[in-house]
Write a structure and sequence with these properties.
By secondary structure, the protein is of the alpha/beta class. The chain is built from 12 helices and 22 strands. The chain is elongated.
């Protein structure tokens, strides 16, 4: 698969489909799975991922902003799209024209969006966002009257209500207590709205960790993010799900050389060869999303064996010690993240090295890194995914 001769990301659509089936198997009848495809589907490519999800019958897609929503519509996504974040009220006409659902998260924003919609002679579909303890956007739990007023605005169609767990991946007693408190706040607010004659039939609260750890809080929909892409979280004891990583990050060997003892490798001379060594140069670097923090700390896989990164990772290249791997040559496959034979380097392993989370590393895979979509081990073009969906529609 090294036909790019540089660096690419393999996106395994079979793994994506399998993860989707695993998640859906946890859900009761009538509970929808919303595929969270913001940030270019966590770096996997929003169009291809969404088309595959649509092919599998997923009806809801979650994005961060209007640009991401338009990208999905342009790709041929006909299902429901919810924007979690801010959209300028001046874009009300675009929201309505493309049948996009907007989060309504603040009394002033609700009034401004309603005014823009009324001025344009349209109505905008919305989901009420409640802040139950995340501290980001959302009506506070004490703003029941304000939330009720937003639901009565004539040019807003409030069809759903949602909040977001902040600590559902925290298995400590404090994390469990905080998550349960968030759910109780959410239930009290929706009950308060119902007491004021406002019934909102579509509720969603759970993120990835919540889906697995808190089966009593599923409501009418759940939002699957990182688990959709095959990455584990800290679930509550006794809770688990079988996941397959969807992305592998690959490259090739560009050069192999022997360096004598005492040779300095890369910028700032952070590595000095303690002996004669065989060094391979790999054409991947921090501009591709392979962080400088991996310098002298991470491994790559070549011929199914680990090779340590030596010296500082450069913008476009890195060097590895292949002294212990016989016969390494130019064009050999290099796995930066993923599996090769019995060995695997996970994004979680790399995240621990960098002191971050796997979400961030996935999102940082560079735009210049081609995404190669595979089904059954064969390359599938994005346009073919769209055509396949059309062919399979009843």
């Amino acid at each position: 698969m090294n036909f790019f001769k540089r660096t690419w990301a393999e996106i395994d659509l079979d793994a994506l489909s399998d993860n989707t089936r695993q998640i859906r198997a946890l859900l009761p009848a009538g509970c929808e799975m919303m595929a969270v495809v913001k940030a270019d589907a966590y770096g996997h490519g929003d169009r291809a991922v969404s088309l595959e999800m649509q092919r599998m019958g997923v009806r809801w897609f979650g994005v961060s902003n209007l640009e991401e929503a338009v990208s999905l519509r342009t790709a041929g996504i006909s299902g429901e799209i919810l924007i979690f974040g801010f959209t300028p009220p001046s874009c009300a006409r675009e929201l309505a024209a493309r049948n996009i659902v907007q989060a309504v998260f603040d009394p002033d924003y609700a009034r401004q969006l309603n005014a823009a919609a009324e001025s344009a002679g349209i109505s905008v579909r919305g989901h009420l966002k409640i802040d139950t303890g995340m501290g980001r956007i959302g009506f506070s739990c004490g703003e029941i009257e304000e939330a009720a007023a937003a639901c009565r605005l004539p040019a807003l169609q409030i069809e759903g209500i949602f909040s977001h767990f902040s600590s559902s991946d925290d298995p400590s007693e404090e994390g469990i207590a905080y998550t349960r408190a968030q759910r109780e706040r959410f239930d009290r607010l929706t009950a308060g709205l119902a007491a004021r004659g406002i019934s909102i039939p579509f509720r969603h609260l759970q993120n990835s960790a919540g889906i697995v750890s808190y089966p009593d809080a599923r409501y009418e929909a759940v939002r699957a993010g990182i688990i959709l892409y095959g990455h584990q979280l800290d679930f509550l004891p006794g809770r688990s799900i079988s996941l397959k990583p969807v992305m592998s990050l690959r490259s090739t060997v560009a050069m192999v050389k022997t360096v004598p003892a005492g040779s300095c490798i890369s910028y700032s001379r952070t590595f000095t060869a303690p002996r004669e060594m065989r060094v391979a140069t790999v054409p991947a670097g921090y501009a591709d999303g392979y962080l400088r923090a991996f310098s002298n700390r991470a491994d790559v896989l070549i011929r199914g064996k680990r090779a340590p990164v030596i010296g500082n990772v450069c913008m476009d290249q890195l060097m590895v010690d292949v002294s212990g791997i016989p016969d390494v040559r130019v064009d050999d496959l290099v796995t930066l993240a993923g599996r090769d034979g019995e060995e695997e380097i996970s994004f979680a392993e790399l995240a621990r090295i960098a002191g971050t989370i796997h979400y961030e590393l996935l999102c940082l895979v560079g735009k210049r890194v081609p995404r190669v979509y595979l089904r059954g081990g064969k390359v599938v073009e994005v346009r073919d995914l769209a055509n396949l969906y059309e062919e399979e529609r009843p």
